[in-house]
């Protein structure tokens, strides 16, 4: 199970979505797929057609910058960050 | 007793201003839509649903909807995407509700439709084959803040007929629900060279007189124009205005010859001239213009109003409402003669629409 942390901009869009949850997935893309199955539309908030991660959506796996095909270990920590600056 | 609701789309969410039909005492609710930038919010009188076109810098584009006048909101972008690799949807720019469906204009330029109340969307047209289409989808030829296809004007009686505005290229009419299109820019002025005389016109706001289906007006980058034949030809009616530039416009609901614009300086500032706020009205189809500024700030008021920033209601004595880039909303309940500020500290405003609800 990966330890997945989401940005605060996401939970208000999906009923019941927490900021942190455990996800059984082999890659970042698979983790997002798991979330999308439970909260339809969530993939569109993080990915563009391709699919690729949206600009300004940054994903880190165990503190290393990651892409959709980055593999996850059993206890990987995955941080999804919306790179918000300014007002 | 009917209630009047002014729907305000801002850089940081949607707001609802509400009054009784006297339109003197207003309450403000919001921000809604999680603070997402709202390009255009509209109300569907048939279903009572509010729709708000949005684009987040981080989470993409979508359409928010509320079936309970703002108490709860849902976001959907299901189907709001281009299948082909050459077009990318960056924002939903404009919304129109007509004949039991919602139409959305998008950037890159395309028309999407929803027949299930905004839950899912499908692509109706990208105006393939129209003159200029290659250029308007070329990012190197797009200005900052490009809106793509920001407006769709429906025909009230003919569901398959509507006009689409492509930013910087002009008006295109379809009479077969987007299967084919015809440019409708004849007689317009462009202060720059054109590759094709049929297109290349910068239409900022297109409106139809509710009193006459053939009477259209537009505020263009280059002047104000009127059509008496459903857009097939245009005549310029700018003479008498302080500037030929502006964005917003509104047609009187009961009088085909009355029409409103808000002229702006044409340079980088794009604010009301001389720091003095005013709305201009014609009551003779553009032959003459009247300046109306009573109640509006007349000193150091550098106010901008964008293309969806002016609305008019359909009550017997219509009320007008405009929102500024600096977050003020002004209202007039005497057809533009006098004005009051009804909200003063909202985020920058992109759109203002008005609904009458029971």
Taken together, the total number of domains of chain B comes to 1
User: Strand content of the residues of chain B, in percent?
Assistant: 35-45%
Distance between the termini of chain A: 36 Å
Number of helical stretches of at least 4 residues of chain B? 1
Q: How confident is the prediction overall: mean pLDDT of chain A? A: 95
Individual helix count of chain A? 2
CATH class of chain B: Mainly Beta
Which of globular, elongated, flat, extended, rod-shaped describes the shape of chain B? Answer: globular
Notes on the protein architecture:
The complex is a heterodimer of chains A (87) and B (358). Chain A has 87 residues and is an alpha+beta fold. Chain A has one domain: Ubiquitin-like (UB roll), CATH 3.10.20. In chain A, 18% of the residues lie in helices and 30% in strands. In chain A, the strands form 2 sheets. Chain A has a 5-stranded mixed β-sheet with strand order 2-1-7-5-6, covered by helices on one side. In chain A, strands 3-4 form a two-stranded antiparallel sheet. In chain A, strand 5 and strand 6 form a beta hairpin. Chain A is globular, with a radius of gyration of 12 Å. Chain A starts with a strand and ends in a 5-residue tail after the last strand. The model of chain A has no long low-confidence stretch (mean pLDDT 95). Chain B has 358 residues and is mostly beta strands. Chain B has one domain: YVTN repeat-like/Quinoprotein amine dehydrogenase (Methylamine Dehydrogenase, Chain H). Helix content of chain B is 1%, strand content 42%. Chain B is built from 1 helix and 28 strands. In chain B, the strands form 7 sheets. Chain B has a 4-stranded antiparallel β-sheet, with no helix packed on it. In chain B, a hairpin with a 7-residue loop joins strand 6 and strand 7. The longest helix of chain B is centred in the middle third of the chain and has 4 residues. The model of chain B has no long low-confidence stretch (mean pLDDT 96). Chains A and B meet through helix 2 of A and loops of B.
């Amino acid at each position: 199970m990966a330890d997945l942390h989401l940005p605060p901009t996401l939970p208000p869009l999906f009923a019941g979505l927490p900021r942190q949850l455990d996800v059984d997935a082999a890659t970042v893309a698979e983790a997002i797929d798991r979330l999308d199955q439970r909260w339809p539309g969530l993939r569109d908030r993080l990915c563009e057609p391709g699919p690729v991660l949206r600009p300004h959506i940054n994903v880190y796996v165990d503190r290393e910058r990651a892409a959709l095909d980055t593999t996850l270990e059993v206890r990987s920590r995955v941080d999804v960050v919306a790179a918000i600056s300014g007002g | 007793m009917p209630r009047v609701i002014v729907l305000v789309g801002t850089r940081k969410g949607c707001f609802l201003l509400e009054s009784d039909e006297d339109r003197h005492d207003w309450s403000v609710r919001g921000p809604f839509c999680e603070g997402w930038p709202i390009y255009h919010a509209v109300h569907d009188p048939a279903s009572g649903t509010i729709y708000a076109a949005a684009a987040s810098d981080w989470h993409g584009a979508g359409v928010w909807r509320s079936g309970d006048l703002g108490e709860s909101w849902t976001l959907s972008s299901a189907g709001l995407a281009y299948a082909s690799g050459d077009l990318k949807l960056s924002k939903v720019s404009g919304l129109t509700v007509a004949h039991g469906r919602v139409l959305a204009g998008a950037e890159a330029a395309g028309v999407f439709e929803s027949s299930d109340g905004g839950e899912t969307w499908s692509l109706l047209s990208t105006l393939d084959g129209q003159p200029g289409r290659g250029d308007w989808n070329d990012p190197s030829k797009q200005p900052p803040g490009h809106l793509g296809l920001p407006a769709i004007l429906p025909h009230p009686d003919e569901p398959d007929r509507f006009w689409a505005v492509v930013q910087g290229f002009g008006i295109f009419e379809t009479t077969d629900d987007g299967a084919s299109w015809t440019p409708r820019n004849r007689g317009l002025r462009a202060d720059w060279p054109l590759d094709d005389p049929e297109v290349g016109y910068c239409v900022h706001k297109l409106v139809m007189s509710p009193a006459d289906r053939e009477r259209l007006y537009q505020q263009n980058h280059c002047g104000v124009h009127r059509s008496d034949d459903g857009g097939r030809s245009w005549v310029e009616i700018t003479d008498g205005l302080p500037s030929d530039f502006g964005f917003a416009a509104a047609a009187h609901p009961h009088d085909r010859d009355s029409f409103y614009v808000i002229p702006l300086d044409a340079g980088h500032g794009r604010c009301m001239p001389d720091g003095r706020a005013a709305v201009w009205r014609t009551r003779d189809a553009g032959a003459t213009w009247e300046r109306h500024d009573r109640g509006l700030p007349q000193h150091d008021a550098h106010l901008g109003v964008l293309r969806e920033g002016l609305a008019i209601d359909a009550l017997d004595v219509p009320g007008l409402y405009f929102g500024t880039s600096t977050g003020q909303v002004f209202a007039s309940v005497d057809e533009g003669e006098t004005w009051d500020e009804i909200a003063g500290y909202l985020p920058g405003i992109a759109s203002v629409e008005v609904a009458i609800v029971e």
